[in-house]
Amino acid sequence: MSHTEVVRAVLESYLAQDRARAEQLIAPDYVFTSPQDDHIDRAAFFDRCFPTADRFRSQHILRLVPASEDEVFLLYEYELTTGARHRNVELSQVRDGMLTRTEVFFGGRVE
To answer: What are the pLDDT digits (tens) for 25-43?
Structure first.
């Protein structure tokens, strides 16, 4: 799989809550960072972040493009079950077909 395909597959596994698939795609040394999570490891990501997909009504990829040899930018828009809509950007690193790092940059509310 290409780097963009790996990132897309991880997002799809999250939305489907297919943890087994996500575990195949996320490296053992994975690090996740967001404004709410500062460099958490793979275990903390699966405990705290992965189970949260039920708060989304929908999520759509707007852009998914290579940023460098091993990094990918992802811009997506989502709607929460409350009806609020937001956009986020993620910079992900992929090595040897596995996601090794994700940095999430929260965007603003979309009207």
So the answer is: 999 999 999 999 999 999 9
Return the H-helix or E-strand segment holding 4.
helix 3-15
Its pTM stands at 0.94
Give the separation between CA 102 and CA 79, rounded to whole angstroms: 21
* CA distance between the termini of the chain: 35
DSSP state of 52: G
Helix and strand numbers, DSSP H then E, in the chain: 3, 6
pLDDT value, residue 111 = 83
Per DSSP, the three-state class of 22 is helix
Q: In whole angstroms, what is the distance from residue 8 CA to residue 29 CA?
A: 19
φ/ψ (deg, to 5) at 23? -65, -30
